[in-house]
Amino acid sequence: MQHLLTAGAQRALALAELIANNSNDQVTNPRHLLAALAHEESRAAEILQSHGIVQNLILQEFELTLPDSEAESDLFETEVPLELSQALYRFPQLKDVLNRALEQASQTSLPVEIGSEHLLWGVLKTEGPHTDWLVNQGAISSDSLAASFQGEHQQAGDPIDVDFAFRTVPATVSDQTNTFRTIDAAANRLREGLRVVEDFLRFTLDDAHLTRLLKTTRHQLTEALQFIGQDSLIASRDTLNDVGTAISSTSEFDRSSLEHLVQANLKRVQEAARTLEEFGKLISVEAAAIFKQMRYSLYTLEKSVLTCVSSQHRLEDCQLYLLATESMCHHGCGPAIREAVAAGVCIVQIREKEMSDRQLLEHGRRAREWTREAGAILIMNDRPDLAVAIDADGVHVGQDELPVREVRQIVGSRRLIGVSTHNIEQARQAVLDGADYIGVGPTFTTATKQFAEEEYAGLDFVKQVAAEITLPWFAIGGINAENLPEVLQAGATRVAVSGVICRHEQPGQITRELLDQFTR
Ligand SMILES: Cc1ncc(COP(=O)(O)OP(=O)(O)O)c(N)n1
Ligand SMILES: Cc1ncsc1CCOP(=O)(O)O
Ligand SMILES: [Mg+2]
């Protein structure tokens, strides 16, 4: 008998493989699969979420990295049904997981399709660090999961002995009404979901840049539907006979926070865009191409929105950021960093241009100790590799250095990535690239770094960023106790400084003077 995996289970396995590759692991193991299972709105993800286990937690715990949206969206292109024996061959380290998933799936009276929830069962039944962690995190175990399965089995009828899982209905020209009906429903779902996300961006995040991006997506929908024909959509609408209107999933009402709500709606709009793209292909290639573009924009938007929200939490009280350079400090970096963090600096960057790699490694490790003692965030300038080596909390890169995507490959998903920006286009791009915070400057002339006259972005740039970007950002360049009021007046709520603290005889005292101004 053939045992097929459902499309959702196949995608989870393929995603697990990408996560393994991305995390530089040789073979796909149960932890990669667990992270993949938590990824989309599958039954497994729903179960995990109901136990408070979301994907980010898993990624952080096991230091795993997701592939980029493009690679991820290719998973949906898989159209060949995957048979269990092929999966066993392709994923040798998941042998136990797959066999247990089969055992569980075979208990149902439906055709033996291995779904995402069966894979989750298999993961829970296969002992490893992930099982202990899952039990500790959310009290989820194979026993607690068994209860969910029992509920399902009781509802199912007698076993049906069929050996295929993919049942397809061929679309022909005579199916056009149904195709229009599907497109109409998906377009409405997309429009409504976009509105929810837009309201979040406008009223909760208050982010003009991301709101604009979302509006563009809404306009694209209108544009694409013109290729389909509004009249045909309305003519095919038959809401009263839609069997789906009475069905609601339990997760539909489970919205524990605004972030959860917006994320669920972003997933919903991506799914709707996918339906539109697939069914759109039967009516208009132009429309299908626009829907595809929309789907990609929505992946980017999701990443930017979620990064923005999580960075706002992580950098919530960070007003003053110190760039520390050994040679600029009177008594070396150690006393300056320790005094500054004790006085309230909560993020410190190691910025050394003259040290050898060995010196930088030693110096970075010491800075790690000083900052850790005080609970401050440590960032390594320019060097993602050294950020990992010294276990810094993040890395800062300039416009000519490695792009965020490449830096992310090196530092993983947990570390912060800061990007320098010198004009509003760069700032907008950094948000879309997935930066966790941005540097905004140079604001005033500075002795710390050389800039040509025309490179000074000034207070106008600070004002532009303040007007439209809510990803945490730090005004930088020549800021001191005298000009700080102007910077705050221009809309900055966070600033990064170097010379004013490093060159001061009493770094703690000047730190307090600067911080005092934020509360006035
Ligand atoms: C917080 C912060 N903002 C900007 C910079 C400048 O980075 P970059 O443009 O790469 O220049 P260098 O600092 O590497 O000379 C920064 N380091 N930190
Ligand atoms: C590294 C850097 N990038 C833009 S301005 C600047 C120097 C910040 O130092 P200071 O606060 O001493 O002007
Ligand atoms: Mg740099």
From TrEMBL:
GO cellular component terms attached to this protein's record: cytoplasm
Keyword Repeat part of the UniProt annotation: yes
Binding site for 4-amino-2-methyl-5-(diphosphooxymethyl)pyrimidine: 349-353, 381, 420, 449
Metabolic or biological pathway, per its Swiss-Prot or TrEMBL entry: Cofactor biosynthesis; thiamine diphosphate biosynthesis; thiamine phosphate from 4-amino-2-methyl-5-diphosphomethylpyrimidine and 4-methyl-5-(2-phosphoethyl)-thiazole: step 1/1
Domain Clp R: from-to ranges: 1-158
Positions with a binding annotation for Mg(2+): 382, 401
Entry EC number(s): 2.5.1.3
GO MF assignments: magnesium ion binding; thiamine-phosphate diphosphorylase activity
Enzyme class: transferase
Keyword Magnesium on entry: yes
Cofactor(s) the protein needs: Mg(2+)
Cofactor note: Binds 1 Mg(2+) ion per subunit.
GO biological process: thiamine biosynthetic process; thiamine diphosphate biosynthetic process
Positions contributing to 2-[(2R,5Z)-2-carboxy-4-methylthiazol-5(2H)-ylidene]ethyl phosphate binding: 446-448, 478
Cited function: Condenses 4-methyl-5-(beta-hydroxyethyl)thiazole monophosphate (THZ-P) and 2-methyl-4-amino-5-hydroxymethyl pyrimidine pyrophosphate (HMP-PP) to form thiamine monophosphate (TMP).
Protein name as catalogued: Thiamine-phosphate synthase
Source organism: Gimesia benthica
Gene it is expressed from: thiE
